[in-house]
């Protein structure tokens, strides 16, 4: 392998356009020249890198660069370049460069150029990634990316309805195709046992003999044929012509639409050669070749003509690929190259005509030769290449095509008609090419054009066309010398040992293909002369079937599926109401439980009341009673329900102690406290009971309640049964044993629960605290724009009473009663602050060895803050103490993440912990594990999150108080 | 003993599910809290109920796992308690914000037409 071109250049080649795209997006939207220079330099750089790669890809050599992505699934970011990919990279970067230059003059200063160039460069990167992918899943990813950027570029002028519709249609068709392709490629990977392109290409016999060959083929073809606009998916391409013309030239003639035929050629060695391949691909290709050419004649829009011509030429390539002969594949690859050059230049010429004349309607354009002599000449050469006139590149590949169609491959109808279809389509191509030139540039001077005085564009706008036309000429005149080597390299990398002998000469002598060419030229000219009067005034589109438009069918289907169908499904299958949904969910859970336990009736353990401790039983009579009572009271007596719920929580807490889980008991108790405070703060914003209008309970409500009651009892019985059966079953070997055995020796802590949290399963805990932080920030964000309901806006009843009382007393200010409220407890609460902080530190430090830890300490600490709020009121606290909970959250996350990444420095995986015992003066021996730092992160985040949530709710009261006129000056927390 | 805890789980679940199916948001919040009690107790009980088993290692080796309580369900439940608090808080705030926007505390954001 040549060391001159290291494989890492592949990363650079694909990455450079994306990087350029990012920079382009960040530049000022009006920096026209800077954008064009940037895009030009990026394309030039990519072109230079590609050019330099040539010596490394000749003679079937391959350069490959592999970066592991998900090795377990066989996914890797593999980039590989061979001759074929090299040829495509040249087209992508070369024509990309020309398009950038052209677009500099085409895009008006009023358009946002930053977006244009950013998207263009991103597309270039995606397209390069597509042709350079060495992993077929990566290929599918880049494939979808090109669809997405094409969508964004077609919709560039999104104020225009046609652009939006065209963009959406292109995305729907190519995106759906892309999904099919992904499925097909996954199947292909399953058949081969690898997603690596080289391995897939080496497994042709296995693939063709596999049972799944036909579905795989169908799915891959669905992707390729939609992308390359083959019948019956062709109609998106003409509609995509709403894109700016440089985009049409680049995406919709030279590169993206070639992706489909690129894929067909890439997989030609492994998929082709079967009857299925020949019939599907051949039928699609030939139909497209013929219909595209026929429809192109009847277009009145210049770009429409070029679009249908593109469809037809892609059909030609597809047909060639369907034949299954190596020579045909050579012709197909050659034509991909030729079509890219002449069609891109024609699109650019059409763009100039549109720019100068102000219209693309061929009925209005006429006699422009005297205004645009140079552009006209260039366009003529390019159209001649499109028509297949000798001494131009289009002629060569078309001759090869004709020659291939008359070779008999199989004795089928499709083979039989191939030469006739080819000749007829060739004649049509002559007709529309002649029409393009004759109608636009010759004839009488134009009348009432939108632009009065068309003139030649700036020289640099024409340079890209000149270069492309030059290529057409050189390739057409001296094919073997100019393009022979490149074509050889490209073809060899696809065909390998099947490489045929072929001769790239202009003159092959008088033979049948030449006769077909001559017939096509003469017939095409005759057809144009015959049709000319009709075409002068005809409507857009082919006669008779003008109304049968793919676009309209597509839209009908789309409306039917996405609107009527969706509405039907929604109205019959779903509901927007929460209760029926939850009811179904509960029912499904119960049924799943019953189903799982079905048949387990043989070895049921006996019901045993043995060992029930009367104390615990009493506790749970209270706890269960609390739960049931809370369920009853929650509707009208919210405070009572809250207290009852806490009662059940406390019993739960005691149960944890009972069954040897002190850590859980501590956490449960602390969380119980903050939950209660939190809900207390929230109660103030709930509506009052509407006692005025007690609705009579009707039959339906009664029925619903009975049904819910049955469901609830069933769910309770179900979980009780499952719990009982599991608890009575013998203990299987548990992972817990491993943790017990290794907690001290490897984690350096005797509190196994804490060691699991901060060490063994530290990554899970990291995820948990991230969730906690997100929830806190969500609450904060939700409440920032909070608008309370009208009936809760005023000051609560109790505060009004107190204020009224203050008002009546001569020696009292309004609000004093509120301040004096709970005077003794509030003094105690203030004094308790340092004690609670100390308790938090204590819980934190002992956590590794004794019950406690970051979670418990964090909540304790936040309770410390909370008590200050309760004692002094929000304002009082915030005048004295700035807590900044968001910083606590940030610090906590950073701390945990840094501790985790710190182990990388020592060459260990993320979150590997290190521990040692150190002796501190006065404190004694403390474990200084790196897990302690992690736990510090947990602690800090829990404090931040809890305080942020509580303060966010508490602040709502002052906010409303502020918006009220004077009297109330204090806002007490926000209690109801 | 197992029967008692199973019944406790059942009672908590039944109360929670009943509230979950009610039309008022506050009922749903309380119901979810009760359900999370039930779930936590359920997960905890999967490590089997051990009375008077030491939860903290005494530092001797080798460790005999049969002596100690199963720490794994405890670790699971511990984080579940904290996350449960967070979700309760989130639901509560969604409740009051949605009440501010829609003017009703019905779970659908509008009173059912009956």
Written overview of the protein:
The complex is a heterodimer of chains A (976) and B (114). Chain A contains 38 helices and 4 strands. Chain A has 976 residues and is an all-alpha fold. Among the domains of chain A are: 272-540, no CATH class; 750-976, no CATH class. Chain A has a two-stranded antiparallel ribbon with strand order 1-2. A two-stranded antiparallel ribbon of chain A has the order 3-4. Chain B is mainly α. Chain B has helices spanning 2-20, 25-45, 71-102. Chain B is elongated and about 65 Å long. The interface between A and B is large, with 117 and 93 residues.
Q: Tally of extended strands of chain B?
A: 0
Mean pLDDT of chain A: 86
Query: Could you say which structural class the secondary elements and strand pairing of chain B correspond to?
Result: mainly alpha
Radius of gyration over C-alpha positions of chain A, nearest whole angstrom: 38 Å
The biggest beta sheet of chain A reads:
2 strands, antiparallel
Q: Give the number of DSSP strands of chain A.
A: 4
Helical content class of chain B = 55-70%
> Main interface pair?
A-B, 117 and 93 residues
Q: Supply the number of helical segments of chain B.
A: 3
Q: Mean pLDDT of chain B, nearest integer?
A: 86
End-to-end distance of chain A: 79 Å
Assembly type? heterodimer
Can you tell me the CATH class of chain B? Answer: Mainly Alpha
Helices and strands of chain B, in order, run as HHH
Could you tell me the strand content of chain B as a percent range? under 5%
- Give the overall shape of chain B: elongated
What is shown here, in short?
The complex is a heterodimer of chains A (976) and B (114). Among the domains of chain A are: 272-540, no CATH class; 750-976, no CATH class.
